[in-house]
Amino acid sequence: SLLSEPTAALMARRVATIGPHSPLFYNTPLELVRGEGAWLTDAQGRTYLDGYNNVPHVGHANPVVADAVNRQLRTINLHTRYLNHMVVDYAEALLDTFNGELDRLFLVNSGSEANELALRIARQHTGNRGILVSDFSYHGNTSSLAELTTGLEVHEEFGSHVRAVRIPDATGMDAQSAMALRDRALAEVDAAIASLQEAGHGISASLLDPIFSTEGLLNVPSGYIEGLAQRVQAAGGLFIADEVQSGFGRLGNHMWGHQLYAIKPDLVTLGKPMGNGHPIGAVITTEALLDEFGGRNMYFNTFAGSPVSSAAGLAVLGEMRERQLMTHARATGEFIADAMREIAKSSPLIGAVRGQGLFFGYDIVRPEAPGQPHPVAAKQLIELMKDKGVLISRIGRDDNVLKMRPPMVIEREQAQLLVDRLAESVAEITSGLS
Ligand code: PMP
């Protein structure tokens, strides 16, 4: 479909200012003008179901968040060198959702800032520079994060102090093969740590997304994450859980992704859904690590932890509690996953069904060569879903895993719409193949 004239004009102005490099979804870009809950409306007045965005966690244009931000902006907004109760109220409410020793935090403005600060804390604590990451991952846009990016094209030299390991995916394996895969993958972790030590870097931290979203929502064999954390921490390094995508109850069964495993992260980094679109992030850590870093460094961040950011964050937590969104994510997530498993049975295009809570993936594979990724069909499905009024996207090293991650407030009827459109799209693309 062609761009309407006003949308084409907007596109031209965008290219003339922001440039042509900033990515846009879809063959024909969508101009979105309004949102409500899980609905979005484009410039032509057409509505779409948002099956993709996790930032509007408690819904697009959520009035409770909007009112809280508005009220605070009209009262006072400050940086953190003055006392204000909003900030402390939010810090307490957020820390209440963590267990054990994770009872201190730094507030920042984005996921990138959170990971950047976590790496700095780890480097100072250990006196080491080495970092362990997944070999297909993204953690942010700063210089030191670009040096460890493996999952997207960045023109920054890959750090000589970084080792990237393949995260094992045991999808479809029996228990015995999964354990063998785990052991091979943990041997790779041992080798990476040894290599950092031999190179004189030592290990300061591992930085991993607990559900491996960029990688395509991996099903890691049981014991792998525990084994990795044990190895990193035994070598003196810190375990950083990047919960920018996995956090805030999205997985349905846990508030935080690292709680899927029997591990104790030293640092947990947060962003995206935290302020429902208002920029806010955090590093959650222990008293010992906070005191060590804070005692040595003057850490100041003008916008971070402002009363307005805190009001947004508090409103998100309040909405989650009032509307029981984590429980809702589990129930609605199970409904969608069940339907997705049924649809998968109907088409040789679909391999594994991945994910949990309200975060799903579908492996799109070659019917004639099961297991082989089919990124072209994945792209066709995404475009067809858009034509049918549902927004989704894709992830994974082969760009063939459909990514579905709706706002947490998606209603049952909307979930039904999502799976109906998915079933139709899969059927159409499947029949087009033969
Ligand atoms: N970590 C993960 C896992 C992410 O997905 C992202 C953003 N895609 C980031 C960090 C960076 O967050 P931000 O864009 O807020 O800087």
UniProtKB/TrEMBL annotation:
Annotated Pfam families: Aminotran_3 (PF00202)
- Which keywords does this chain's UniProt record carry? Aminotransferase, Pyridoxal phosphate, Transferase
Q: List GO molecular-function terms, semicolon-separated.
A: transaminase activity
UniProt lists the family membership as follows: Belongs to the class-III pyridoxal-phosphate-dependent aminotransferase family.
Report what the protein is called: Aminotransferase class III-fold pyridoxal phosphate-dependent enzyme
Source organism (scientific name): Glutamicibacter halophytocola
Give the taxonomic lineage as stored in the record.
Bacteria, Bacillati, Actinomycetota, Actinomycetes, Micrococcales
